[in-house]
Amino acid sequence: MKSAVITFPGSNCDRDMDVALKKFGFKNKMVWHQDVELPKSDLVVLPGGFSYGDYLRCGSMASKSKIMQSVINFANSGGMVMGICNGFQILVETGLVPGVLLRNKYLEFICKNVFVKISNKNNAYFKNINNNILELHIAHNEGNYFCTNDQLKKIEDNAQVAINYCNNEGKIEELFNPNGSVKNIAGIFNKEKNVLGMMPHPERMIDPSLSGEDGSLFFKNLINNLK
Amino acid sequence: MKISVIITLKKDVLDPQGKVIHQALDGMGFNDVNEVRQGKYFEIDTKETNPKKAKDKVEEMCKKLLANLVIENYKIIDAL
Fold first, then answer.
1. Less CB within 10 Å around the terminal CB: N or C of chain A?
2. Which domain covers residue A24, as residue numbers?
3. Count of domains in chain A?
4. A60 contacts in chain B (CB < 8 Å)
5. CB of A99 within 8 Å of any CB in chain B?
6. Nearest-by-CA chain A residue for B72
7. Distance (Å) of CA A190 to CA A6, A98, A162, B9, B12
8. pLDDT value at position B80?
9. What number of C-beta contacts closer than 8 Å exist between A and B?
10. Which residue of A has its CA nearest to B11?
11. What is the pLDDT of residues A16-66, one digit of tens each?
12. Residue A202: which of A189, A218, A223 has the closest Cα?
């Protein structure tokens, strides 16, 4: 399986993602934001970081960079595109997934482990995964997912919610909402479910000596689903 | 020609920064403030000399980049 990770000026999780993808069997290529064409890939990843210093709105400048037109075309033709953290912010700015990510409700940069519940397994990202709850890491200042009521209705009607913040038992309540996101939403799909944007970092949970291995479950499952 | 743009958050969107600024003002003794909303201001100097054309272009910029229409409104201040 081939993957590509896009590096923008200010990306800082691109190499972590490269390590994670290779660890679980992807042949990964790093792609520079000024490139025009994507290498042949089964999965394209927009990594976390602070692309363009978060100028204007997080992800807004990166969403207009040269490579993004190819990424958008790839996604629109059914290709799998995953945006993590700043990558999620870039995805919402392209319009590939609905909504926006606002400043965290309590104005704090949040850096901690959280639990998320997988809300939809009927897609290539989470199909066949044994767990319903994953412990993943978040580190963001603008992760407060927001959309209009009309958008929310469409998102729910199309089962586009991927993961919600919850407690270790999978309870989705305001108490376990770290950043003020609408309905505890931590990640969403596009309508067709080939594009996934999420705030948590699975690539930071691939080694028991670091913080945990729930990210390993995600990547192992992902590559098996793509084979 | 210079054109100015003001971007504001839509009414229903939570503005935590505005809230904190409001609280700070309150603490400083400015007690008659009802609400504070924080926005953005842009000054665009364009080569276009026709005011109508310049305004149309800036409007396109607002829609494509300067504002995120899910949460923000834009207001173009007449060409100076």
1. C
2. 2-226
3. 1
4. 65, 68
5. yes
6. A100
7. 20, 7, 10, 25, 24
8. 56
9. 32
10. A148
11. 999 999 999 999 999 999 999 999 999 999 999 999 999 999 999 999 999
12. A218
ipTM attached to this prediction:
0.82
Any residues with CB less than 8 A from the CB of A187 and at least 6 apart, and which? A88, A116, A161, A162, A163, A196, A197, A198, A199, A200
The residues with which B72 forms a beta bridge, in sequence order, are B9
Residue B58, SS3? helix
The CATH number for A184's domain is 3.40.50.880
From B68's Cα to the closest Cα of chain A, the distance in A is: 8
CA distance B77 to chain A (A): 19
Residue A150 burial (CB count, 10 A): 9
The DSSP 8-state label assigned to residue A123 in this structure reads: S
Query: Out of B13, B14, B65, whose CB is closest to A60?
Result: B65
Residue from A58, A85, A147, A166 carrying the catalytic annotation: A85
Domains and CATH numbers, chain B: 2-77 (3.30.1280.10)
Q: Which amino acid is at A103?
A: R
Of B14, B16, B68, the CB nearest to A57: B68
Asked whether the beta carbons of residue A102 and residue B71 sit closer than 8 angstroms, the reply is yes
Is the pTM value of this prediction over 0.90? yes
